[in-house]
Every structure is written in C-alpha cells, then in structure tokens.
Automatic annotation (TrEMBL):
Keyword set includes Membrane: yes
Keywords, in A-Z order: Membrane, Transmembrane, Transmembrane helix
Residues passing through the membrane, by range: 29-54, 60-88, 95-120
Name of the featured protein: Uncharacterized protein
Tree of life domain: Bacteria
Amino acid sequence: MSEQNPFETAAPDAASDATPARRRNAVGVAALAVGVIGVLLGAVSTFAPIGAILQGDYALVGLLSAVSLTVAVVLGLTATILGIAGLAARDRPRAAAGVGLGLGAAHLISAVLGVTYSLVLSSLA
C-alpha cells in the first residue's frame, strides 16, 4: 500500500500552463502620471498667488497666472495625446490611459474656461 502525501502536487506541465503574461500599458501609465502631476500643480498654483496679492504685487499675480496656464496647457496636451495613444494600443489594459485622457481633457477645458473668464472680466472693466 502506497502512501500519498496530500501536500505534494505534480509538477505543472509546460503546455497546460499557457496563461499569458499580463502586458502593461506604459503609455497609458505615463498619461495617468502626467494628468495627476497636472492636478497637483493646479492645486499648488491656486494658492501660489496669495502672497503676491497680500503684498499688492498684481504684476506678479498676472505672471503666476500666465505660467500656470501655460503649464496646464502643456500637461493637458501631453496627457491627452498619451491617453489617446494608450487607448489605441492593442492587447493592453486601458484604464490608466482612459483616466489620463480624461485628466488631460479636463486640464485643457479648464485652461480654455480660465482664459474665457479672464477675457470677459477684462472687457467689463
């Protein structure tokens, strides 16, 4: 009578272990990273002009706003382009690319609305 070890398993057959390795979408992850960096920089740029406003240096406030807008547009375009490229990749996960695309588009919409708001306010003055 042979004893069987319940903890011993047979070595897996190479042919039966055909689970494909999960591929990563580096472009999609890059789109997500650029989008998140844009969100973080946007939060910082919201509070950056407070010191200049308190000192009455409105020229510096304008400069900070222009720099913030430029950075938002560049990061928005970059995240949008990378997100589209990540979604176009075949046999790759698409979640990060989709979120990166959404964040990039939100940056671009925010920049357009910010410029429109500034133009409307300046025309009323």
